[in-house]
Amino acid sequence: MDISNTRLKELLDKYLDGTASAEEISEVDAWYGAFESHKGVTEQLNADQQVALEQLLFSRIHREISQTQAPLQVVRSRVRYWWAAASVAVLLIAGGVYYTVNRTTEQGVSGMMITATAEKGTIRKITLPDSSIIWLNADSKIRYAQQNGREIWLEGEGYFEVAPRQEEGFLVHTGQLDVQVLGTSFNIDAYTPGDSITVTVSSGKVAVRTEQNTDVAVTANQQAVYKAAADKINRYDISAADFGAWREGLLVFKNASFESIARTLERRYKAHIRFDGQKTASALLSARFGKDEPIKDILRMLCDIYGFNYRQEPGSEEYLVYDAQPHH
After folding, report:
1. Residue scoring higher pLDDT (231 or 288)
2. d(CA 36, CA 223)
3. For range 251-268, the mean pLDDT
């Protein structure tokens, strides 16, 4: 079936908005039947449209697998999934993203996982099958089972707007911490390497749980900070609005070390920032920057607060922040 680029984009945008009819979803499904002859179309899709297409393609794959294999049950695990047996692969050629769906023969385990990634320098909006929305910050990734899109594995940072479903929870795994919700909006910062995981709630209520099953309830305009070294969760009252500002491309820092700010800038601008010593790296800063602020202007303004300086290595995106004179 032939679908023009414009029509395909229109259908995928409707799917993302939750307004696509059954007939329109079937239209994309029929297009997939002739996928080999339409690979070039995907190069004109934006990141959100690619996510929608991936979800629809995986739904079709799931149906095809179900025709030859009894339904499998989803098993929740705190460790990474390693799947055996045969695999079905979907390659979005122009998108540069390779997805693999594995079929395992292990009893009681579903091998179908969907992965969505925001590369460095990008922010992605993802709509789950239940209409929940996830914003992925730069250099972040989520995984979830095709059969259970309300259990998420997060690496990096994500902002969640969870669609409420009575008596059906929503669970996010972040390595050493789980976040359980029923319907709310919240931000999770679980970048690695890092010495803490933060959960900031904009609306509703969540339960933050450690591997030792220590629960802390967090409500709107509160933040839970988990320190791995102490294996302890602290809860603070905050203004939650700034912690999701990155979805609009804004950069907001509050009493953050220059080193932690540098890690954020590296992910946003695909750069590398070094420091000449602990004094510059540990300096605490608060600042707010607009969406299109160049990294050089940001570094200049941050350095001026403490009288630091910076230099860019010739022909690269590497920067050195130093106090007075660079140390060699």
Report:
1. 288
2. 48
3. 94
Tell which of 111, 131, 162 closes a domain: 111
pLDDT at residue 99, as a whole number: 33
pTM of the model: 0.63
From the CB of residue 146, how many other CB atoms can be counted at a distance below 10 Å?
19
Q: Which of 221, 248, 275 is the endpoint of a domain?
A: 248
Q: 84, 89, 74, 213: which is closest to 153 by C-alpha?
A: 74
Same-domain check for residues 160 and 179:
yes
Question: Does residue 327 belong to any structural domain of this protein?
Answer: no
What's the average model confidence in pLDDT over 129-133?
88
Cis omega (within 30 of 0) on the bond before 193? yes
Residue 73 maps to a domain: yes
pLDDT at 223: 93
User: Has residue 328 been placed in a domain?
Assistant: no
What is residue 104's predicted lDDT score, i.e. its pLDDT? 27
Domain assignment of residue 166, given as a range:
113-248
| CATH number assigned to the domain comprising residue 286 | 3.55.50.30
Q: State how far the Cα of 243 lies from the Cα of 186, in Å rounded to an integer.
A: 9
pLDDT for 64 beyond 70: no
As a whole number of Å, the CA-based R_g of the chain is: 22
Residue 49 clears pLDDT 70, i.e. is over it: no
Asked if residue 96 and residue 57 are part of one domain, the reply reads yes
Kindly tell me the number of DSSP H helices and DSSP E strands found in the chain: 6, 20
Q: For helices 47-66 and 22-33, give the axis angle rounded to 10 degrees.
A: 80
Q: Which of 270, 276, 277 is nearest to 295 (CA)?
A: 270
Q: Is residue 39 part of a domain?
A: yes
Mark whether 53 and 84 lie in a shared domain.
Answer: yes
In the structure, what pLDDT confidence band is assigned to residue 86 with cuts at 50, 70 and 90?
very low
d(Cα 318, Cα 295) in Å, to the nearest integer? 11
